[in-house]
Design goal:
By secondary structure, this protein is an alpha+beta fold. 43% of the residues lie in helices and 11% in strands. The chain binds a DNA duplex through helix 5, helix 6, helix 10 and helix 11.
Length: 270
DNA sequence: AGCCAGGACAAGT
DNA sequence: ACTTGTCATGGC
């Protein structure tokens, strides 16, 4: 089954290449394919429309939620446009959507992301899935479940070349498996309590926790502060985000991140 | 060769 | 509460 939306609503490049996910890849024809919940999905731009394919029959609801298709981003943009810099970012970076990804995958992925660059993050995750994930098809593996990983040790992760992050992965897996980390419970917590809970995992600090809260639990008031956002904040918002961003700091963050990193990187004085 | 990459953490002020 | 060195790996 297919879902078709306008490219203004869902820009594949902006959505998949803005650093919120690491398992979507673009081929030579500009077709994106990703593996989500053990299923291969393709997203293809055709003119000014975008076609999402690979969705199971009657599975529309889950996928509309994954792609956040029922949210009105023009409403977000309108609110944020009260601020001049955010207005520029929104106008330039239309078509971004915040995906609602699986918590465990997001947690492990952003643990791997720390002090790392996007190509290498993708490589480590790819090797991780290949080694531990269920095989879906030729060269295609699901992200492994925590249960599947139970009992792994640091030495099992050596070939991933994840470096010092290997022991963080081991700790995250064990805390998920023994119930110290319970995703349903975290989902129900307030932003601050959920963040503290996630930070009980070794190697998870504010930034990684906020990424998980934004990209997996869709808590739009989470505001991950990476090196780029810190530069932007110092330059434009030394006293914090403007009031119009209240409650949707995470959306503002994505627009700013994409705008300053991919559209207008030179407006930042490093 | 040295610096940086969507950081975390401990140790030192 | 803020600053600094360290952590493992790879690309430039």
């Amino acid at each position: 089954m297919k879902i078709t939306v306008s490219v203004k609503e869902l820009c594949p490049a902006r959505t998949f290449l803005c650093g919120q996910c690491f398992r979507w890849h673009e081929d030579e024809q500009g077709k994106f394919s990703g593996i989500v919940s053990g299923r291969e999905i393709t997203v293809t731009q055709k003119g000014d429309m975008v076609e999402i394919d690979g969705i199971p029959e009657n599975g529309g609801k889950f996928w509309r939620e994954y792609f956040d298709l029922d949210a009105d981003y023009s409403e977000y943009a309108l609110r944020l446009s009260e601020d001049e810099t955010l207005k520029k970012a929104c106008q330039a970076s239309w078509g971004i959507r915040i995906l609602k990804q699986e918590p465990f995958e997001t947690l492990i992925s952003f643990i791997i992301s720390q002090n790392n660059n996007i190509p290498r993050i993708s490589g480590i995750i790819s090797r991780f899935c290949q080694k531990f994930g269920a095989k879906i098809s030729e060269n295609s593996y699901a992200f492994p479940t925590a249960q599947r990983l139970s009992g792994i040790e640091e030495s099992d992760l050596a070939e991933l070349r994840a470096g010092f992050r290997a022991r963080y992965i081991v700790d995250a897996v064990s805390k998920v498996n023994n119930g110290e980390i319970n995703f349903e419970e975290i989902d129900a917590l307030s932003l601050d309590l959920a963040r503290e809970k996630l930070k009980s995992i070794v190697g998870v600090g504010d930034k990684v926790a906020d990424c998980v809260l934004l990209f997996a639990f869709h808590k739009l008031d989470a505001f991950p502060k990476d090196v780029w956002i810190k530069r932007i904040m110092n330059e434009y918002y030394p006293n914090g985000l403007p009031k119009c961003a209240e409650g949707i700091e995470g959306v503002a963050q994505q627009y700013l991140f994409d705008y300053f990193r991919n559209v207008q990187p030179f407006e930042i004085k490093v």
